[in-house]
Amino acid sequence: MTRETIPFEALKVDIFNLWDNQWWVLSAGDFATGKYNSMTVSWGALGIMWNKPFVLVVVRPTRYTYQFIENYSDFSLCTFNEKYRSALEYLGSHSGRNGDKIQSSGLTPQAASNITAPLFEEAELCLECRKIYCADYDPKRFLDVRIEELYPQKDYHRIYFGEVVAITGLAKYRAAC
Known about the structure:
This protein has 177 residues and is of the alpha+beta class. Helices cover 16% and strands 36% of the residues. β7 and β8 form a beta hairpin.
């Protein structure tokens, strides 16, 4: 699969579909040393913050990937076509603490151009991100009481903003300029 560089202003996506239905694989760590982990994510945002293209992701402290996103300065997000749904389900339901779940998923990690975290060969769209902000969710600030129902174990997410420093993707993700 050949991905091309896509300038942020030329990115063309159905953002709600990407997050809610297609999902992303979030990876953090160092591909070169083999110390990284990945997980499936379906909650987040993409836009402009502080005059920078950014992505927002959330990770619960109970997830194995949490230690990697905490200890490294960057992360990646990759999305795939429906053919890889079972691999994404596997990455979202198994922990890297107990073995090499990435190898078991059948996906092929590869080096990114601008960050230490890996991308995936099979991905249709990849965002390389440098962390620029993080904060813990404060349940006292939830304005919709139904949000609390999503945290029966009180394992509130940490929110991360990543400046998008590079985008690669299939031609279908590039708007005609």
